[in-house]
Amino acid sequence: MTAPTYPDDDARWNALRAKDRAAQGAFYIGVRTTGIYCVASCGGRPLRKNVDFHATREAARAAGLRACLRCKPDLDRETLRWGVVETSLGLALIARSDAGLRLVALGDDVESLRGDLETRFKQARLIPDTAGLAADLAAVATLVDHPEQRPDLPLDALGTDLQKAVWAALRRIPAGRTVSYADIAHAIGQPKAFRAVAQACGANPLAVITPCHRVVRSDGGLSGYRWGVARKRALLAREAA
Question: Name one GO biological process term (predicted).
Fold first, then answer.
């Protein structure tokens, strides 16, 4: 997957019809009949004869158009680059901001992973860039097979202060060891917050890098795992070996 380009109005029209998230903010759609301008992924479906394309928001406003209330084209949207790699436990999708990895998700098919990405980051411009992310993708695939490694990857996971504290504690758990939610609660200095810890584990956006699979119930049961209990069992078995 490589970043798409939109060299002419036909390409821009096709991006509009596809609700292409990579085109979000790359250009703007003016709709003469309604007097509004939109981003390419807007849910509106104007007729081609009523549409003009503008390179910037300023150009759209200069043409007398106002911002669409549905897609809010005046928002400053961040750009996330994303790519998918095959691992020994299925596919891994990563998304990266300028600051670091925002998402590492595991799954079985690209469309489901992409759908999850689009749901999580509804306002971001999402650019496919497997080639540009090759080193990060390779590091994640290697980590699946070699969990004892600690790849030096910049991280940019967004969360509350408590979530970030939990995720940092998870990254300190060595491979081959498991802990309980109560153990993590004690580790972050909030021994009564084990339910909040469980929620933070469930919200972890960085599979295998932040190893929430190493947290089990106090009775040793596996409990849940966002990316499938079978993957959790497989990861723990590899680490135990």
Answer: methylation
6-30 pLDDT, tens digit per residue, is: 999 999 999 999 999 999 889 999 9
The verdict on 41 and 94 lying in the same domain is no
Percent of the chain with pLDDT over 90: 85
Q: Is residue 174 part of a domain?
A: yes
Cα dihedral 25→100→201→142 (10° resolution): 120
Q: Report how far residue 185's alpha carbon sits from residue 218's, in angstroms, rounded to the nearest whole number.
A: 13
Rounded distance between C-alpha atoms, residue 81 and residue 128, angstroms = 6
Identify the domain containing residue 48 by its residue range. 9-67
Q: Return the CATH number at 130.
A: 3.30.160.70
d(CA 123, CA 98): 16
Question: Would you call 97 exposed, middle or buried from its count of C-beta atoms within 10 A (0-12, 13-18, 19+)?
Answer: middle
Structure-derived torsion over alpha carbons of residues 2, 90, 217, 119, reported in degrees to the nearest 10: 40
